[in-house]
Specification:
Blueprint (H helix, E strand, L loop, with lengths): L1 H12 L9 H6 L1 E4 L2 E7 H4 L6 E5 L16 E2 L4 E7 L11 E6 L3 E2 L9 E2 L2 E3 L8 E8 L2 E7 L10 E4 L5 E2 L1 E8 L2 E6 L10 E4 L4 E6 L1 H4 L9 E5 L4 E7 L5 E7 L9 E4 L1 E2 L4 E7 L6 E7 L23 E2 L6 E2 L21 E5 L1 H5 L13 H4 L14 H7 L3 E4 L3 E3 L4 H8 L3 H6 L12 E7 L12 H15 L3 E6 L7 E2 L2 E2 L4 H9 L22 H18 L3 E4 L7 H11 L4 E4 L8 H4 L14 E3 L1 H8 L13 H4 L4 H9 L11 E2 L10 H4 L13 H13 L4 E4 L19 E2 L7 E2 L12 H4 L18 H7 L1
Length: 785
């Protein structure tokens, strides 16, 4: 008997093995067993040998921490990794939630090609299970809409109860049928639709937050927002859209560092929730900010609970990330290209970062390094007599300059940064000990041009005209200019910090996607809510139109475009004109299941409203983007993996989602990726030590002979390397600096977004050959490109 009990205990306590999971479960990445959910990762299926495995997805807001507690898998056999979660009634992980596995230092793994549950490049949980829905939204003071699926709901008002966050109850007096799966509840007492309420159905014991979607999806104003001078009226108008505010106050200052305003004004609200005030005269150069007042409800950050001044999301000038706004007159745009904007099929785009491109330019005055004016400085040459900077791009022959973000983006203040890292060895070696270098994918003020790119010593706001002059300089040479836009998330929640800059205070529930608990969702801290929010869709269109109309740019590259709904992107293309160049990233799903499960909003390559980055071509030509291990397998056809048919499809633009030759834009490397020189390095994945020249030339040839548009990572043409960045993760802390306290994520070579020297253009290598004592024929490779 004792032996039998021991044997039974052994059975129940032993770990599950690969044999306990079917091939289908290994491919789909999960198994459901009653109330238990297993995430299943089979290393053999993925053809990898990981050191560690984690899972992330919409159920945890696409959290990117590799060691997030509760989401790390355990190795149970030679190839199998498992994570067991209690998931009764799918309350933790819901049907149709998307997810992905990550390994080692953070590498994202694409789903196995044979998996049946793939959507937008992700795996889908419980894809054959219908998702039950019980939601609510407030439409008006006497209209609560209940939306349901998978439940039987009655028309008895006594089955429903409304509550506010303080627990006060409000009866329902009538229930009307509105449409299939929709009921109209009429409260016994009129509600203030700006407040937070919850509705409970007693029969099914379910409670839902009454979202503001029913009201917000129809709320719109066409008035000009921001600070604008009307010459006809001789007035400067201040306007801000704040639908749930009870009061908005404007503060005017004479100097940027004034602590007290010279004038304070309460704005008046119009019928469409635009708050406005007009001051006589042209206030060009005046500094200003706001306070936004409202109810102390969950999810609100109004002045009554969060006493901060906020900046104008429509400001044309903002003093760095955390300073005041400045009234600035509209800029006269650059003259258009003489022969028109290149057609998409002819685009050869050159992606480049203003600071990377200019910091090491020989002969450039110090006050112009890292600036717009430095970017278009002509006549510069290196020690070999080669053209560098602006003249290099003209000589090279690209017909589109693709600038990484030039909208005002998040920088930690210099004094805070230097206080913490000025004498840090790692920071000094990376060239980031004196300032918080960034690529710019953390927009803080979408209509303002980046302050730090102005010529040093010039006044705040002069960057606007300097940026316009950059566009004009390229237009004079027949080269189009496009800008990299990041309207899918903002700087207000980055690296686990809450920064109350504008939208989150003005109305977090309007401008962002939120959880039922009224908190942010999104892998990048926030997701701007373009669907069901006409004024957010307008903000997206406005920022693009203003950069066209006031600076003369020719189009946009959209970061994480897959998180902006399909209809808004179609609207954008229609509004700015079909001659404009627009392409973007289709990947990275929204963390909002409502978005992902709506085919009118969610999109991927097969139904893309814009030209998308064709990663299938990249993989075919030179391999996946990060951390190659095997030279033959991980460098695509050029590296010798033998995938001839896939390479042919990518050359002819006949991949599965390529409806036309301009559906996707082909590329080899881009800012996110390993530099091509390092991928084709002879030793230690370090392109500075010599490259496999013929294979790199094969990759270049594949790209340039493929049909349709292409984009190049600036500097690749003369073997730009990122190998100075070590392949390691570091997370130092900012301390004793108030709102800035917290981690700084340094991802090393796999993601050099905040490592300056790794990205800097080494102009002195251009023109050098092996006879000059270097390890690469820089001159020969450049001439080949």
């Amino acid at each position: 008997m004792k032996n039998l009990i021991f044997f039974l205990l052994l059975i129940f306590t032993c770990k599950l093995s690969a044999a306990d999971f079917s091939e289908t479960e290994k491919l789909q990445g999960f198994k459901i067993d009653g109330n238990k959910t297993y995430f299943v990762f089979d290393a053999k299926t993925y053809k990898v040998n990981p050191k560690n495995v984690s899972v992330t997805g919409s159920f945890i807001g696409w959290n990117s921490e590799m060691k997030k507690e509760g989401w790390v898998l355990s190795k149970t056999s030679e190839t199998l990794w498992l994570l067991e979660k209690e998931n009764p009634d799918f309350e933790l992980i819901a049907p149709m939630d998307e997810f992905k596995f990550r390994i080692n230092e953070g590498e994202w793994l694409n789903p196995p090609q044979k998996a049946k549950n793939i959507k937008s490049g992700n795996l889908v949980f419980a894809h054959e299970t219908k998702r039950k829905i019980f939601k609510a939204e407030i439409v008006d003071s006497d209209f609560i809409r209940v939306i349901f699926d998978g439940y039987e709901l009655s028309y008895n008002p006594k089955d429903y109860l409304l509550k506010n966050p303080k627990g006060e109850e409000f009866a329902v007096k009538k229930v009307f049928y509105e449409a299939n799966g929709k009921l109209h509840l009429v409260p016994a007492k009129k509600l203030d639709k700006r407040r937070v309420f919850y509705v409970t159905n007693k029969k099914i014991n379910k409670t839902a937050f009454c979202s503001f979607d029913g009201w917000f999806r129809h709320l719109y104003s066409g008035k000009e927002l921001g600070a604008n001078y009307s010459k006809k009226q001789n007035k400067t108008w201040f306007r801000i859209f704040a639908p749930r505010a009870t009061k908005v106050k404007l503060y005017l200052y004479k100097k940027h560092d004034d602590t007290e305003p010279y004038k304070t004004v309460e704005l008046k609200k119009d019928e469409n929730c635009v708050w406005e005030f007009a001051e006589t005269g042209n206030l060009h150069g005046t500094y200003y900010d706001y306070t936004i007042h409202g109810f102390d409800d969950p999810g609100n950050h109004f002045y009554e609970t969060n006493p901060v001044h906020v900046s104008d999301p429509y400001a044309r000038v903002n003093l760095d990330t955390f300073g005041k706004c400045r009234v600035w007159n509209k800029t006269k745009p650059a003259k258009p290209l003489k022969n028109g904007i290149p057609k998409m099929k002819d685009v050869i785009a050159y992606e480049v970062h203003v600071q990377d491109f200019t910091t090491a330019l020989s002969g450039l005055p110090e006050n112009k390094k890292g600036t717009f004016e430095g970017f278009f400085q002509q006549g510069l040459k290196n020690k070999k007599g080669e053209k560098i900077g602006f003249d290099h791009i003209v000589e090279f022959g690209a017909n589109v300059v693709h600038l990484q973000p030039v909208q005002e983006f998040l920088h930690f203040p210099n004094d805070v940064w230097q206080k913490n890292f000025l004498n840090d060895k790692y920071f000094t070696e990376r060239g980031i000990n004196k300032e918080n270098y960034q690529w710019g994918y953390r927009t803080s003020h979408a209509l303002a041009v980046e302050t730090r790119y102005r010529t040093k010593g010039t006044e705040f706001g002069s960057q606007n005209e300097q940026f316009r002059d950059l566009v004009q300089a390229f237009h004079n040479k027949g080269i189009a200019v496009i800008a990299d836009y990041v309207f899918n998330h903002t700087a207000e929640r980055m690296d686990l910090r809450n920064y109350f800059l504008n939208f989150s205070v003005i109305d977090q529930q309007y401008y962002y996607r939120n959880t039922e608990k009224l908190t942010f969702i999104g892998e990048y801290g926030t997701e701007t809510k373009s669907e069901d929010r006409p004024m957010v869709a307008r903000w997206i269109v406005d920022q693009c139109k203003i950069f066209i109309n006031e600076f003369g740019i020719d189009g946009f590259r959209i970061d994480l475009a897959g998180q902006t709904d399909e209809q808004t992107l179609k609207l954008l293309v229609s509004e700015i004109g079909k001659d404009k160049i627009v392409y973007g990233e289709p990947w990275i799903a929204s963390a909002d299941p409502n978005y992902e499960n709506n085919p009118d909003w969610d999109w991927y390559k097969e139904d893309a409203p814009i030209t998308f980055f064709q990663d299938d071509s990249r993989n075919a030509f030179c391999g996946p983007p990060s951390n190659p291990e095997n030279k033959q397998k991980d460098r695509g056809f050029a590296g010798g993996n033998g995938e001839r048919e896939q390479a042919k499809k990518s050359l002819s633009k006949t991949n599965a989602e390529d409806k036309t030759t301009t559906s996707g834009i082909n590329y080899l490397d881009i800012h996110d990726n390993w530099a091509l020189a390092d991928r084709f390095a002879k030793n230690n994945w370090d392109g500075r030590q010599g490259i496999d020249e013929n294979r790199l030339k094969i990759a270049a040839t594949l790209l340039f002979t493929s049909l349709g548009p292409i984009v190049l990572h600036g500097g690749t043409e003369f073997l730009r390397s990122k190998a100075s960045a070590p392949l390691e993760e570091k997370t130092p802390e900012i301390k004793d600096s108030g709102i800035h306290n917290g981690p700084v994520y340094l991802h090393g070579k796999r993601d050099t977004y905040n490592l300056r020297l790794a990205n800097e253009f080494n102009w002195e290598t251009k023109g050098k050959t092996l006879k000059d004592g270097v390890n690469c024929d820089y001159k020969g490779i450049y001439e080949f490109w």
